[in-house]
Q: What sequence folds into this?
């Protein structure tokens, strides 16, 4: 349910507060999460839609489900980070995969690229003669 709009830099305690806000004020917690996290305009629009649909109880249920999904994603990320800290060998094994995704390594067979050579001045272009001083 709108997982793409979930902000990723929310802490566990912030996610709990957002859940409580969405229970009592549907959509407000979602908008607050957009301000706290790194979410885009989409999260604000989701919050406004939740507020608009609150009168029919659809927005209320949607807001609660959205906050629960946010809390689950925060807990999963926290658990993954804790697992990497607890098992240093797993962190070392995961490091090359992370680096491979973020850095492109040239193949060994590929020739190294040479830096572009500076262009030499063409023979057509001559330097202007130096200016002469006028005697006083």
A:
């Amino acid at each position: 349910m709108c997982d793409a709009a979930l902000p990723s830099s929310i802490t566990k305690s912030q996610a709990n507060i957002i859940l409580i806000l969405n229970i009592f004020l549907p959509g407000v917690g979602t908008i607050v999460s957009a301000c706290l996290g790194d979410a885009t305009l989409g999260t604000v629009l989701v919050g406004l839609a939740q507020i608009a649909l609150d009168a029919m109880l659809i927005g209320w249920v949607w807001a609660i489900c959205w906050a629960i999904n946010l809390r689950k994603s925060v807990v999963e990320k926290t658990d993954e980070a804790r697992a990497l800290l607890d098992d240093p060998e797993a962190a070392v094994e995961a490091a090359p995969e992370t680096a491979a995704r973020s850095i492109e390594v040239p193949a060994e067979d590929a020739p190294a690229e040479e830096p572009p050579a500076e262009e030499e001045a063409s023979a057509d272009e001559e330097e202007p003669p130096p200016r002469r001083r006028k005697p006083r």
